[in-house]
Amino acid sequence: MKDTLTSVILSIKPIYAQAIIAGTKKVEFRKKIFKREVEKIFIYSSMPKKKMIGYFTILDVIEDTPINLWNEFKEVGGISERDFFEYYKNAEKGFSIKIDEVVKFEKEIEPDDFIEEFCAPQSYIYIEETTTNWGFKKLGL
What we know:
25% helix; alpha+beta; Archaeosine Trna-guanine Transglycosylase, Chain: A, domain 4; 4 helices
């Protein structure tokens, strides 16, 4: 058994990050998916906010064509049809991460406070749970 659990930080536009926290967005769409098994996804609300606002656990990951993902998840995807297909333009496949439990941080977190030399990921970055536990303890969370 592993001593640490793998998590990722996902860069998510603020409008979608807030929808996840509010519970209205039940899936996160991605063009690429993790190569490792992931326990938690930390939500990095990208520009202009640039803060960690919470995390969620994964219920399931579905791989399919963009049209099939849209047809299955359009009601819970929290994105317009136009924006969805613009995002997947020229993509033959995509992924839908089904969101399970969502936890909102009481206080938004500066990523630099618990990850040295943090650089916002284009898509995602792996972090080990021991790193986040240390960082959260340091922040008093």
